[in-house]
Inverse folding.
């Protein structure tokens, strides 16, 4: 029983030596305070960079969706609309989805026509009102993607653009 009482004293003796010099204590105190400060600044920067990255991606995607919608609204027919969406997707490597009312006109990424039966229930499409922009990020086929959707009441189109995560964002996440 007496032996168990000595164990915590031995551990405390290893952690806090009884006869350490004043200089040693000063250095240990300095190391603790600097370590806490470095960890705090690192955590703050990590959170802030992720928040800024998300905000920047949302602003960029909003502008791209608006430009895409403006280009698609110039289409003279449904076939022309689908062709324009395919051209935009092929050139930019973005996923472009166009709905007219509740019916899907085209969902394309580069040369591939996609079939997402749940397109209207996706986060970026839910609660989408006239003139409103919605943003979401998620994994698509194991790849991080950012999506933006915009309802254009003037033309009756709903345009969604999805872009893969940029290299800078991948670097930040690591």
């Amino acid at each position: 029983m007496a032996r168990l009482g000595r164990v915590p004293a031995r551990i405390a003796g290893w952690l806090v030596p009884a006869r350490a010099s004043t200089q040693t204590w000063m250095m240990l105190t300095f190391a603790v305070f600097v370590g806490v400060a470095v960890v705090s600044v690192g955590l703050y920067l990590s959170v802030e960079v992720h928040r800024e990255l998300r905000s920047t991606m949302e602003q960029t995607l909003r502008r791209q969706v608006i430009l895409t919608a403006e280009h698609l609204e110039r289409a003279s027919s449904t076939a022309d609309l689908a062709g324009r969406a395919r051209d935009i997707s092929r050139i930019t490597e973005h996923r472009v989805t166009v709905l007219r009312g509740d019916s899907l006109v085209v969902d394309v990424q580069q040369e591939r026509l996609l079939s997402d039966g749940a397109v209207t229930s996706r986060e970026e499409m839910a609660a989408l009102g006239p003139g409103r922009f919605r943003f979401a990020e998620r994994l698509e086929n194991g790849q991080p993607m950012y999506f933006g959707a915009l309802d254009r009441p003037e033309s009756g189109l709903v345009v969604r653009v999805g872009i893969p995560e940029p290299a800078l964002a991948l670097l930040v996440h690591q």
